[in-house]
Every structure is written in C-alpha cells, then in structure tokens.
Amino acid sequence: MPAHVKAALLDPSLTLPLSDGRPTLGTWQGSSCASTATAAVHARWSPRRGASRPSRVARFTDYDGLVLPGGVANPDRLRANEEAVEFTRAFFAAGKPVGVICHGPWTLIEADVVRGRTLTSWPSLQTDLRNAGAEWVDEEVHVDQGLVTSRKPDDLPAFNAKIVEEFAEGVHQGQKESAAA
C-alpha cells in the first residue's frame, strides 16, 4: 500500500471565494491511504474545508482517484456540467479508481462509462443505470474493476474501506475498458 494517495472529491457544493459557480475540486492529503480516502468521503459533510482549485483548472493526472458525492442536488449539478463530466471520464480512460455513492452514478451515466459494468446506487437509479447498459445490484458496496459504488450514507463504513483498498491498488485495466466501450 502506498504511503500517500491523493484523492479528488468533485463536489459542486464546495466553492472558492469569487467562484464562477462551477463545481470545484476539493483535495485532502493524509499521512496514510486510509486517512486520505476517508477525508475525501467525509468532506461532503464538511464543506468548510474549502476547495484547492476549481474543476476547470484541475487535471486528472494530479490525482490517484476520484470520489463523486451523493445526495440528489450534487450529482444533478455535476452531470449537467461538461467540465465535470469530462474530468470524470478522464479517470476511467486512465484506469484510475473511482468511488460513487447514492445518486452519484448520474454523473457516470452522463460520462458514458457504465455500459457493461455492475454497480449499486440509491434504488431509484436502477432503471437509469440499466437503460445506460449497466447491471444494477442491491448491495451495501459493490466493486467492479476499480469502480466502488454504494447506496446510501448507512453504507459509508463499507464504502470507505473499499475505496481505500481500490485507491491503494492503483490503476485498473477494467476502468480503461469501460471508457473505451
């Protein structure tokens, strides 16, 4: 396991002063893989941390993994933002691990990276995911070649453990293949 993993949290609720209203990218670096990933997930509920840079200037090459937030409003705003969608797609094309919870898969659908993949989400997204070519399962956490998905906040302990594991593993060939499909 690497001593340090840099995770990106794409979250439209995190804003910089003088922001133009676009999603911002928050990053948190910890002394270990576990603290980094956990901080990235919990940042959704701690927006006072601030973002390190707006998404329009962030480069996916600067990060080892991506965490997309849940809820309804955040994923809805992200999927409507082409910069956020392209940023997300780039992680898949590079084979980097991605963690998504709740309604977060909406952004993955928009990025066209779920076809042929198996994932879970908030139950009301199962038809959207199937229509986009994914297989939906009702599980606390599901891992498919570096893509970690969970259903709801109650699943966070299992979700956190799995994203830490997947981020530590690094690049996954299956992620690359889903972006090329």
Structure in words:
- The chain starts with 6 loop residues before the first strand and ends with a helix.
- It has a seven-stranded mixed sheet, with helices on both faces. It has a two-stranded parallel sheet with strand order 6-7.
- The longest helix is centred in the C-terminal third of the chain and has 14 residues, at 156-169.
- It contains seven helices and nine strands, in the order ββαββααβαβαβββαα.
- The protein is α/β, with parallel strands linked by helices.
- It has one domain (7-180): 3-Layer(aba) Sandwich (Rossmann fold).
- The protein has helices at residues 33-42, 73-79, 82-93, 105-110, 126-131, 156-169, 173-180; strands at 7-11, 24-28, 53-54, 65-68, 98-101, 118-119, 135-136, 141-144, 147-150.
- Helix 1 (33-42) crosses helix 6 (156-169) and helix 3 packs across helix 7 (173-180).
Topology:
Layout lengths: L6 E5 L12 E5 L4 H10 L10 E2 L10 E4 L4 H7 L2 H12 L4 E4 L3 H6 L7 E2 L6 H6 L3 E2 L4 E4 L2 E4 L5 H14 L3 H8 L1
Parallel strand pairs: 1-4, 4-5, 5-9, 6-7
Antiparallel strand pairs: 1-2, 2-3, 8-9
Which key phrases capture this entry?
globular, Rossmann fold, alpha/beta, two-stranded parallel sheet, 181 residues, 18% strand, 7-stranded mixed β-sheet
